[in-house]
Amino acid sequence: MEQDTIERIKEQIAQNSILLYMKGSPKLPSCGFSSQASQALMSCGEKFAFVDILQNPDIRAELPKYAEWPTFPQLWVEGELVGGCDIIMEMYQKGELQELIKEAASKAASEE
Amino acid sequence: MSTEAVIEQKLLAAFSPVFLDVLNESHKHNVPPGSESHFKVIIVSPDFEGERLIKRHRAVNAVLATELAEKIHALALHTYTEKEWSDYYEENTPLSPKCLGGGKRSATPKA
């Protein structure tokens, strides 16, 4: 069971070059930190995938261990954990997030 | 000892910070009065020099692993080098976002 969840997480991370694990959805976030993170990501202007961990309690339980990251949201880009809300916001304010997301999106598009 | 004090002690010992602020922000969230669940930490340390944010946060998370596993629900982290602090963040410390209710959100969201 736990192993199945880890496999699912790995698949999600591998198949979505920009992926946000969050509480709620970008349109209806359930937590202030998830809300900030998804807003910053949306304003980068690229499509991204998200997983609502409140709807997926198994992922909520397993991902922190797999990621060695205790909290949500978590932003994964090209298979790597970028960070949580505070890192996302600080990168966004410096313009680094926009750069990273644009690059990942154009790479993903050219691979399709 | 309060969780707030434990966080403070552990971070002081681990990072020899030049500035450290541990704030209990639990009262802003959907938890009973007097809770110690939501914290914000601002920490300025020479240890962060040349390290990316994810590595700095991982280092802090590691020091507070027990508290994160058992007590802390949310930990806002602001980790700076001395230069980042004096150049910008000392005057512009980020605010934590408003609570949206978390898993216990009512049918009609407040925001």
Characterise the protein shown here.
The complex is a heterodimer of chains A (112) and B (111). Chain A is α+β, with helices and mostly antiparallel strands and 112 residues long. Chain A has a single domain (2-104), classed as Glutaredoxin, CATH 3.40.30.10. Chain A has 5 helices and 4 strands; from the N terminus they run αβαβαββαα. Chain A has helices spanning 2-15, 32-42, 57-67, 85-94, 96-111, and strands at 18-22, 49-52, 74-77, 80-83. Chain A has a 4-stranded mixed beta sheet with strand order 2-1-3-4. In chain A, strand 3 and strand 4 form a beta hairpin. In chain A, helix 1 packs across helix 3 and helix 2 packs parallel to helix 4. Chain A is globular and about 40 Å long. In chain A, 44% of the residues are buried. Chain B is globular, with a radius of gyration of 15 Å. Chain B has one domain (3-91): BolA-like (GMP Synthetase, Chain A, domain 3, 2-Layer Sandwich), CATH 3.30.300. Mean pLDDT of chain B is 91; it is low at 106-111. Chain B is an alpha+beta fold and 111 residues long. Chain B starts with a helix and ends in a 22-residue tail after the last helix. Chain A: This is Glutaredoxin. Chain A: Keywords: 2Fe-2S, Iron, Iron-sulfur, Metal-binding, Redox-active center. Chain A: Residues 18-82 form the Glutaredoxin domain. Chain A: It holds the Pfam family Glutaredoxin. Chain A: Belongs to the glutaredoxin family. Monothiol subfamily.
